[in-house]
Automatic annotation (TrEMBL):
Stored Pfam families: AraC_binding, HTH_18
Protein's name in the database: AraC family transcriptional regulator
Keywords: DNA-binding, Transcription, Transcription regulation
Domain of life (superkingdom): Bacteria
Residue span, HTH araC/xylS-type domain: 174-271
Cleaved signal peptide residues: none
InterPro entries in UniProt: AraC-bd, AraC_XylS_family_regulators, Homeodomain-like_sf, HTH-like, HTH_AraC
SUPFAM superfamilies per UniProt: Homeodomain-like, Regulatory protein AraC
SMART domains listed in its UniProt record: HTH_ARAC (SM00342)
Keyword DNA-binding appears in the UniProt entry: yes
Species: Streptomyces gibsoniae
PROSITE patterns listed in its UniProt record: HTH_ARAC_FAMILY_2 (PS01124)
Positions of the UniProt region annotated as Disordered: 268-290
Length: 290
């Protein structure tokens, strides 16, 4: 990646529980349609990112933030020949809900009502969070993160609509998702899945895309990568994780993982292990008896 001018680091900081961190510069990178379990708060430093969200292409340039709610389908690609450079924080829904309850009047499940916000000050706060992490300053990192999330919620925050499953199609889509989640390593064919749910393949495809923003096979790949991330975080090797989630081999996992997460699984796991080792080393220096 470095040879192409592209680079990315995806990591965690033990002193910011429930938050993933990312710094990246991409030129030719294209993120396929995917979702995140956490919120995406991405501050563009230079260049332009285009991401498909809510049925339309969204554009985020320098000083803007790309904001994506959990479990929301979106893509990502460069909007200019030189690509885009950005820093991002991915706070958990629980953390955002906690901040919203303390600092806003939002009722219900909080989220962002706009996918792009032009706010250089808020974008700068995101970069400052990452800088504080680099400097191993947990007080500053946690403070700046909460200030940033509060500012964003006050500007473009609101209660997220509940996903409707009242229609027969919505119920079938929800049941299909549950089956795919349970049988991730050995999923049924579309025809078998539709027959088991008492519907037709075409009806199921249409209902699933309406409910989740992507067809079942795309959702399954995304879900497999999500689960692989959890396994890698727990110490499972990439080769073992690939088999566990239903990919044919590690190269298969590598390809899809990189297209969705932005870094290969080996680099992803290595950065997280190294961060844990740095934190442990710092604590041991502070307390020689630890």
């Amino acid at each position: 990646m470095a040879g192409s001018g592209e680079r990315a680091r995806h990591w965690r900081y033990e002193e910011l529980p429930g938050v993933d961190l990312l710094r990246a510069r991409y030129i030719h990178k294209t993120f396929v349609r995917h979702t995140h379990e956490n919120f995406v708060i991405a501050a563009i430093a230079d260049g332009v990112e285009i991401f498909h969200h809510g049925g339309a292409d969204q554009y985020a340039g320098p000083g803007a933030l790309a904001l994506v709610n959990p479990d929301t389908s979106h893509t990502g690609r460069a909007g200019v020949p030189e690509g885009w450079r950005y820093g991002a924080v991915y706070p958990s829904p629980q953390l955002v809900a906690e901040i919203a309850a303390e600092t806003t009047a939002i009722r219900g499940t909080p989220g962002f009502t706009s996918p792009v916000l032009e706010d250089p000050y808020a974008a700068g706060l995101v970069h400052e969070v990452l800088r504080a992490v680099d400097e191993d300053n947990p007080l500053a990192a946690a403070t700046l993160l909460r200030v940033a999330v509060t500012r964003l919620l006050r500007q473009v925050g609101g209660p997220l609509p509940q996903r409707a499953v009242r229609t027969a199609g919505g119920r079938a889509a929800a049941r299909a998702r549950a089956v795919l989640e349970e049988r991730m390593a050995q999923p049924p064919s579309l025809e078998r899945l539709a027959a088991d749910l008492g519907t037709s393949p075409f009806s199921l495809l249409r209902a699933f895309r309406t409910a989740y923003g992507m067809p079942p096979h795309t959702w399954l790949t995304d879900a497999r990568v999500r689960r692989a991330r959890s396994l890698l975080d727990a110490g499972t090797t990439p080769a073992e994780a690939a088999v566990a989630v239903g990919f044919t081999d590690q190269p298969h996992l590598n390809r899809h993982f990189t297209r969705i997460v932005g870094v290969p699984p080996g680099a992803y796991q290595r950065e997280r292990r190294e961060d844990g080792s740095r934190i442990a080393g710092r604590k041991n220096v502070q307390d020689p008896n630890a």
